[in-house]
Structures are given as structure tokens and as C-alpha cells.
Amino acid sequence: MSLVVGHCRRAWRRAVRSYLLVCARDDAAARGLTVPDGVWICGRCHQALLELTSLREHLRVEHAFP
């Protein structure tokens, strides 16, 4: 059973990461901004970050996400 749980967790994480990327791109497009590859935008405060690790750190520190 643990193999199934591990697979589901990995799939969920991939889906969340994909969703964050798509939402950031859609938000930028809705605001009329051109976002090159590699730019991440926080969905809460709209801060632009150049790396995914920076976005994760920002979310963890500024918005108290785990």
C-alpha cells in the first residue's frame, strides 16, 4: 500500500507545481504582462521572482506555507 501512497503524493506534488506555474502565467497574461520563462509570480502579493526555489522560500517565509 505504501507504494501507491508514495505514487499519489508525487503525482499530487507535480500537479500542484504545474498549477502554480499555469496560474502565474495566466495572472500575468490577464494583467497584460509579458512573462519570460523562468519568472515566477506570487499569487498573493504579486511579487515576481526569478527562480522556483525563491518562490517557495518567499511563500514559506512571507505567507507561512509549509
Automatic annotation (TrEMBL):
InterPro entries for this protein: Znf_C2H2_type
Tell me the ranges covered by the C2H2-type domain, including all copies. Answer: 42-63
Please give the superkingdom of this protein's source: Bacteria
Put simply, this protein is called C2H2-type domain-containing protein
Per the UniProt record, the lineage of the source organism begins with: Bacteria, Bacillati, Actinomycetota, Actinomycetes, Streptosporangiales
